[in-house]
Predict the 3D structure of the following.
Amino acid sequence: MKDFGEVFTPESIVQQMCDLCEPDISVIDKKVFEPTCGNGNFLVEILRRKLRRINQVDNPRFDLEVIWSLSNIYGVDIQSDNVQEARQRLESVVLDFIAKYQGSTLTRSTIAAILEVTIVVGDTLRDKDTLHFYDFQPNFDTGSFEVTKYSLRDIERDYANCRRISLADVSDGIARIFSLPDKPKSKPEPLRSPRHNSQLMLLKRGGR
Ligand SMILES: C[S@@+](CC[C@H](N)C(=O)[O-])C[C@H]1O[C@@H](n2cnc3c(N)ncnc32)[C@H](O)[C@@H]1O
């Protein structure tokens, strides 16, 4: 316990901290990542808040929305017993929730399969290339998900490059924030060598 700084946050503090992150934290498609999730105190509360947003009356999207909510909550802990406990707690929250909705066809194994890839064992500081996370994007017409895999390093790099710009300020915002590269001062080298020319010819003959 001492080695890993394992002190769990009390329920009242979890509530207060989640309140500070409202309304975003409750939105189903907003992703939340807890890099040292312990036994899931924050993850459980965030999941409850997202599930509360799902319409429970005649909702043809119910199952997809439940899985989507769950899939947008990510956690890592270095201790496997904590990860196991966090997964079990999240699974119970989902099972209790879907039990109240008669039309749900979700099974425990579907929920477990999601949790296996979203709540994982690892060292968040060191395993940036081996820790992977999955983005689930639902297609409500086909009842499917488009799933993309990212390493923690990819995510951190993309996050560092991400900026918010307002609709009223799109062009200036892009220019200012991303510092568009200057126009080249000297003319680029023309493709003069025979090697380049023959390659161009081959491409043309190939019809591309
Ligand atoms: C202070 S506890 C907090 C747990 C939880 N976030 C909470 O508030 O209840 C810190 C947790 O971080 C985990 N931990 C420590 N170093 C870590 C690392 N490098 N990568 C991932 N988890 C780590 C420990 O196992 C422990 O469960």
The longest strand covers residues 132-139. Confidence is low (pLDDT under 50) at residues 189-208. Helices lie at 11-20, 41-52, 62-71, 80-99, 108-118, 152-161, 170-178, 194-205. The pocket of S-adenosylmethionine is lined by residues 4-9, 34, 36-38, 41-42, 76-79, 82, 123-125 (CB under 6 Å).
